[in-house]
Inverse folding.
């Protein structure tokens, strides 16, 4: 159980660090930090080789979706003038919908 708390603390530290850097130091540096590939070292925490192979494949697909949705967020907010909150809500909704469909339609039927 201690490993879960350690993982939670590390992830929370990354999010807090991104917020701090964006607001107090340099938004560009925060953007770089936000690109930390957490799925790659997380693969080491998956117990079996079969599960880690499945994990990294599924993570790769979801990172691709995340990349597309992140660009969508930028496009809506910067280029179309949609509010920050609405841009995030739309983008997160699309990501979440894709994640649900992928998990229940594709991943569960492998």
């Amino acid at each position: 159980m201690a490993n879960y708390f350690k993982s939670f603390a590390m992830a929370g530290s990354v999010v807090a660090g991104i917020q701090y850097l964006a607001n107090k130091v340099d938004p560009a540096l925060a953007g770089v930090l936000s690109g930390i590939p957490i799925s790659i070292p997380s693969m080491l925490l998956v117990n079996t080789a079969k599960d880690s192979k499945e994990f990294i494949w599924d993570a790769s697909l979801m990172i691709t979706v995340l990349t597309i949705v992140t660009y969508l967020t930028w496009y809506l907010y910067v280029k179309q003038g949609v509010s920050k909150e609405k841009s995030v809500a739309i983008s997160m909704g699309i990501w979440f919908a894709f994640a649900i469909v992928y998990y229940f339609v594709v991943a569960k039927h492998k």
About this structure: Helices lie at 2-25, 27-33, 39-42, 49-79, 84-106. The mean pLDDT is 91. DSSP finds five helices and no strands in the chain. The chain has two domains: 1-36, 45-110.
